[in-house]
Every structure is written in structure tokens, then in C-alpha cells.
Specification:
Helix content: 55-70%
Oligomer: single chain
Number of helices: 7
Low-confidence stretches: none
Distance between the termini: 28 Å
Largest sheet: 3 strands, antiparallel
Strand order of the largest sheet: 1-2-3
Shape: elongated
Length: 142
């Protein structure tokens, strides 16, 4: 394996900082979409985040009422009024209104993007946050 030059290390560090900041500032829906793409690409289906109103019935279709009640009761926190839900490590339901604070790890996404999806040298100084956001979304979702 070849060693990185100082310029490559500097480009990587700058790209890391820029991408992580933009990820933290993304809308919830965009951040969830990027997180879910990361989970699918890294074979982590248990970490996928679902939209409560749009996906609850479809994801839990066929569940027996008692099983569903158990999943809600034994989850760390589940409130049907929250916007997002996921399954915890025990396949119980958890929910939140703040997936970026509770479940999304920007550092993991940034590492994945820079190791597999984005060349650090493509994140140029002077790029706007919108340009970086679009680059992240395109790299993650396409």
C-alpha cells in the first residue's frame, strides 16, 4: 500500500471536515436517506430508519397485534407521534423526532463516503455547502 503525500492527507482532512459539517446541517429527510444508503451498502439493515407516517404500515404488515404491542413496549422509547422509527438490536421498536441526534453517525457516513464514494480531492476549497450536499447525495444515492 502506498503512503499518502502531505497534499493528499491535507485534502482528505479538509474533505472530512467539510463533509461532516454538511451532513450535520442537512435536512432530516436528506440525512436519513444518506444514512439508509450507508446502511444498505454496508449490510446493516437493522440500522435503517423509517418514516413513521409513510412506512409504518408497510414495514410492519403482517405483524400479529400482540407481537406489535410487545415490540412497542420493550423498545427503549416508542411514541407513535414521533416522525421516525427503527428496530433496536432486539427487533423492538424505537422512535424519535431527531434521528440526526439519536441514530445517525456522521463520522461513519463520512468515512464511508471518502473511502468508497467520493475522491477527497474532488471536495474543493471554496465549494458551497449546497454543492457539497449535492455531491454527498449523488454519491450516496446513485
Amino acid at each position: 500500500m502506498s503512503e499518502r503525500t502531505k497534499e493528499q492527507v491535507k485534502a482528505y482532512d479538509m474533505a472530512w471536515d467539510t463533509i461532516e459539517v454538511v451532513l450535520c446541517e442537512m435536512s432530516e429527510a436528506a440525512a436519513v436517506a444518506v444514512w439508509n444508503a450507508f446502511c444498505i451498502d454496508n449490510n446493516r439493515p437493522d440500522d435503517i430508519i423509517y418514516n413513521m407516517m409513510e412506512e409504518f404500515d408497510g414495514v410492519l404488515e403482517g405483524e400479529e397485534p400482540l407481537d406489535l404491542a410487545r415490540r412497542m413496549f420493550y423498545g427503549h422509547h416508542f411514541c407513535p407521534a414521533d416522525k421516525w422509527f427503527m428496530f433496536n438490536g432486539y427487533a423492538n421498536l424505537e422512535s424519535t423526532d431527531y434521528p440526526q441526534n439519536d441514530w445517525i453517525y456522521e463520522g461513519e457516513i463520512t468515512d464511508w463516503l471518502l473511502s468508497e464514494k467520493i475522491d477527497p480531492e474532488d471536495v474543493l476549497p471554496g465549494m458551497t455547502d449546497e454543492e457539497v450536499r449535492d455531491m454527498i447525495i449523488e454519491a450516496a444515492l446513485w
